[in-house]
Amino acid sequence: MSEVITAIYEGGVLKPLQEIGLKEKQWVRLKVRPTSPEIARAQEESAKYLDSKAVPGLIAKLELLGETELVTSSPDILQGVPVIAGTRIPAYVVLRHFSDGDSVADILLEYPSLPRQRLERLYEIVIKAASETLGGWTE
């Protein structure tokens, strides 16, 4: 299980700003991304909306924009879960990466089979829509 947390670095120690589910002396692998308090709060807020509940609204928005080749759904692929077109990667997984602040390059490191141009276009649409109104895609 992976989890994105916000922490502050003080006195040589990273201190989480919220409760985390770790056992005492449990090892973790960290990906540190410096940020500001304002950006961290905005990312935490957007994470509430950019998950699997956001996918139906995102698909509707993509259809309005004529961008139907970015995300597709078929009963033959993952039982109809919307995926990034040409892959078996669920759209909600990519949305979660965006809400965690991952860049297109970060996502491509984890999912090299994703078509870069599709991912970049989806990123542009997601960021623009999220900046217009948080939660604008949820039902």
Protein traits:
139 residues, mainly alpha, Arc Repressor Mutant, subunit A, two-stranded antiparallel sheet, two-stranded antiparallel ribbon, 5 helices, 4 strands, disordered C terminus
Question: What would you note in describing this structure?
Answer:
- It is a single chain.
- The chain has about 140 residues and is mainly alpha-helical.
- The chain has a domain at about 45-130: Arc Repressor Mutant, subunit A.
- Helix content is about 40%, strand content about 10%.
- The strands form 2 sheets. A two-stranded antiparallel sheet has the order 1-2. A two-stranded antiparallel ribbon has the order 3-4.
- Strand 1 and strand 2 form a beta hairpin.
- Residues about 135-139 have low confidence and may be disordered.
**How large is the radius of gyration?**
16 Å
Give the CATH class of the domain at 44-132. Answer: Mainly Alpha
Shape estimate:
elongated
What composes the largest sheet? 2 strands, antiparallel
Number of strands: 4
Tell me the quaternary state. single chain
- Main-sheet strand order equals 1-2
The CATH superfamily of the domain at 44-132 is identified as Winged helix-like DNA-binding domain superfamily/Winged helix DNA-binding domain
Number of helices: 5
Assign the CATH topology of the domain at 44-132: Arc Repressor Mutant, subunit A
Broad structural category: mainly alpha
**Roughly what percent helix?**
25-40%
**Average residue pLDDT:** 76
**Share in β-strands:** 5-15%
- H/E series: EEHHEEHHH
Give the end-to-end Cα distance, rounded to a whole number of Å. 27 Å
